[in-house]
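Build the 3D complex.
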Amino acid sequence: MEQEAYEREALTYDVVVVGAGPAGLAAALELIGGDDAASESPTVCVLEKGASVGAHLISGAAIDPRGLDDLLPEWAEQGAPLRVRATEDSLHYLTSKRAVRLPTPPQMDNRGSYVGSLGELGQWLAEQAEAAGVEIYPGFPAAEVLYDESGAVCGVATPDMGRRADGTPGPGFEPGVEVRARQTGFAEGAHGSLTQQVIERFGLRRDAQPQTYGLGLKEIWEVDPQRHAPGQVAHTIGWPLDQFTYGGSFLYHLDPRRVAIGLVVGLDYQNPYLSPFEEFQRLKTHPTIRPLLEGGRRIGYGARVLPEGGWQSLPRLSFPGGVLAGDAAGFVNVPRIKGIHTAIKSGMLAAEAVRTVLQAGGNEADDLDQRVGASWLRDELHPVRNIRPAFRWGLLPALAYSAMDTYLLRGRAPWTLGHEPDHQRLQPAARARRKVYPRPDGQLTFDRTASVFLSGTHHEEGQPCHLVLGDPGLATRVNWAVYDGPETRYCPAGVYDYERDADGQPRLRIDAINCLHCKACDIKDPPQNIRWVVPQGGDGPNYQGM
Amino acid sequence: MKILVTAKRVIDSTVRVRVRSDGTGVDTANAKMAMNPFDETAVEEAVRLREAGTASEVLAVTLGDAGSEEVLRTALAFGADRALRVESDDPLEPLAVSRALAALVEREQPDLVLMGKQAIDDDSNQVGQMLAQHLGWGQATFACAVRAEGEELQVTREVDGGRRTVAVRLPAVVTTELDLNQPRYIKLPNIMKAKKKHIDRVALADLGVNAAPRLEVLGVAEPPPRASGERVASVAELVERLKNDAQVI
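Done.
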């Protein structure tokens, strides 16, 4: 990136946390409210790219309260928005017409969980953190990692505001601000743009498997109260996905009258013609799901990737000047499809490790990996580590393997299955079967445009494109020529499209204003030519109660 | 010159607003709130007048519950000198708001009241005009340019078919259009400083205002959904349909 000669203001804290999600807010709370009252609390600043806390948070969610139990044991009395206990829970295998009930595996037993919204939980955590003295700044993303002379991370910088599309300063130009800190916590969520840079720079993945992801799509519906059963939890596998595509659906009855429905598709899918968005739309037409939604009203839409690599894909969590936490590192328990409680716990452990460094001196919280290894995070994540990778053998062998791994080996298999990076899994279009999806009906199924509208996403026009092509020609030469433009299908927001230029040559058009910040393109792009960088502060989706 | 500028807290303009299923109003649960964009231009203009040396002090005022102090923090981060909230937990109608502001003007004695021409939640476009009436002041509405000229302001107004510049003697009420200016990007350090500033509070009752509602909302409904398009076979059919079915030509 070019360097320009203008002064940036600098602010200094003990700790800066990037991302006001469950991991970042738990870390901030734990840092400021640690129980050794004798020592003075560190100063903590949380930067958040969403226009408000929760605007970029999206999850199912059936929330295991274990993380909150550790963080704020009085959460119920303090009014945490976990109000609806999961009641019934079921797992079905779908064919196009039928649903076959499967025994609920122990990991998917949701007794004790709560169905709710991660966005609301984030807002509540932010209130608790602010009351405790944490400074939270929504609308201010971290766009750049700052390094000191020794090469250690020494903070982050917010993006410049008011640049024109060509990068030159516009009339209202306001340079970014440096937020310097002794320790920086990266809690950006799955595939965070700065987290990826830090992992690369410090070789944090040296002893870990590549991360692999799923793309989650979600809608919220208001349904007929007659058909609504608060607390009901249902999951499906199988249709509309084929046997070799990992994924499944969730359906949670929230209150009042609201239903969260979603589909997660493993980004290790092979067919470039697959469209996770259209598969999700199709899911809603299944005979067992359609009656619930019919006559209802869709009120929310969003999408986000989630890390599915599990224990073996966790990078080293500390490096000189900082730590990783939550989905940015990859703490999702995939068989349980839960990552909020683990994100909270990982944030707390990161905070404990950082506190020790602040007190004892030094610049790396290098015992963080041990702390995680000694916590219930390991007890929860290590035994289930082989279930997700088994799905590359196909659905039925994977179910058989999972049963054996869970019931016979009880997670103590002497082997650990590995992963391949998602972008290497796509087959050339010539070898793939084309898929034809039904047209949306505007009642139950919708197109991307109508869906993106519901996300409230907004990007100020005229700014530099935040989806950067390393080599613009590569999109045509590889993505178009070999894979028939897969980004037009995996992008859940319709950001990518090919148009013909004056010479009739295909050219990739990027409508970055629609972007939902899901990060699928940065992960799945076969030549790894698309780079997602943060846009101006406050841009992106405006999710409500997602 | 002392400026009083108003700021209303409304649902953010980027939020997709939903009508409550019982049709009694708009669902505000979890909705992101922000300063009314018309007020943002008013605050920006006030701060620019102060920065240019025309104004000596900018007082930002809101009416509402404790949550609405958020927009005062924003106004302070823009550069307002002081902030004051008139405490009211109930939604207020334009007449009550204008009366409260008139009472406040008596106390604060500003030379200019700058306010958004309307709020994007109820689109009433009444408070500025009512306030000028209560005070017996001149008014210049729909301002898209403001210039101080001695004891008067020259205000350019958006009118049908063009622009019109009027002179208004101070003290006066000026209501603002969106194209009056481009509000600045607020700097992070200014937000930090604004968090620590004091906000004055006045109870609505202490202003002696009768805020009893006089309007009754009969119903709130979303616009009808757009009908889906149709494909026609020929130009002749298109013309025929536009003429007879759509009746637009």
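Chain B touches chain A through 21 residues (CB under 8 Å).
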